[in-house]
């Protein structure tokens, strides 16, 4: 039984690790948003921007080291990879901001509920961007 589980893990390691670290990244995003939006009463779009920035930084480190396990040969390759990562994450961050604005200001959904809902879109976008455009 243990060998079958390990075989399944190794076969789907990248997806399993992405889900795990993506879950942690999503948790960072939601917790930071909650702190700034709900506890500190900052405007929700500013709280969301801060949450996005911090979760992008967390995600870069975990994706590079633990999920896609890429290694760059030199500083230039590291910088290029980082810029691609930030660029694509800013695209998904824009989708996050737009979704939040639509849900909160147009549909009148609670900010914390809206944040949870937007994460489904963001996680899928981020996996596609990371898998096919960033960590090659």
In short:
With 136 residues, the protein is mostly helical. It has five helices and no strands.
Keywords for this entry:
single chain; 136 residues; mainly alpha; globular
Report on the structure:
The model has no long low-confidence stretch (mean pLDDT 91). The protein is globular, with a radius of gyration of 16 Å. By secondary structure, it is mostly helical. Helix 2 (13-39) packs antiparallel against helix 3, helix 2 runs antiparallel to helix 5 (111-134) and helix 3 (44-67) packs antiparallel against helix 4 (75-106). It has helices at residues 2-11, 13-39, 44-67, 75-106, 111-134. It is built from five helices and no strands. 86% of the residues lie in helices and 0% in strands. It has one domain.
Question: How would you summarize the topology of this molecule?
Answer:
Layout: H1 2-11, H2 13-39, H3 44-67, H4 75-106, H5 111-134
Number of domains: 1
Which class best fits the helix and strand makeup?
A: mainly alpha
Name the shape in a single word.
globular
> How are helices and strands ordered from N to C?
HHHHH
Largest sheet: none
* Average of the residue pLDDT scores: 91
What percentage of the residues does DSSP assign to strands (E)?
A: under 5%
**Which spans of ≥5 residues are poorly predicted at pLDDT below 50?**
none
Q: What is the radius of gyration? A: 16 Å
List how many beta strands DSSP finds: 0
Beginning-to-end CA distance, first to last residue: 33 Å
SS summary, helix count: 5
Helix share bin: over 70%
């Amino acid at each position: 039984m243990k060998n079958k589980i390990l075989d399944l893990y190794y076969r789907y390691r990248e997806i399993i690790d992405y889900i795990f670290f993506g879950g942690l990244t999503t948790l960072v995003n939601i917790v930071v948003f909650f702190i700034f939006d709900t506890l500190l009463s900052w405007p929700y779009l500013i709280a969301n921007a801060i949450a996005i920035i911090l979760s992008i930084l967390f995600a870069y480190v975990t994706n590079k080291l633990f999920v896609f396990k890429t290694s760059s040969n030199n500083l230039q390759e590291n910088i290029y990879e980082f810029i691609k990562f930030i660029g694509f994450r800013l695209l998904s961050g824009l989708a996050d901001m737009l979704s939040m604005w639509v849900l909160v200001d147009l549909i009148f959904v609670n900010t914390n509920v809206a944040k949870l809902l937007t994460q489904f879109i963001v996680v899928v976008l981020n996996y596609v961007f990371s898998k096919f455009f960033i960590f090659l």
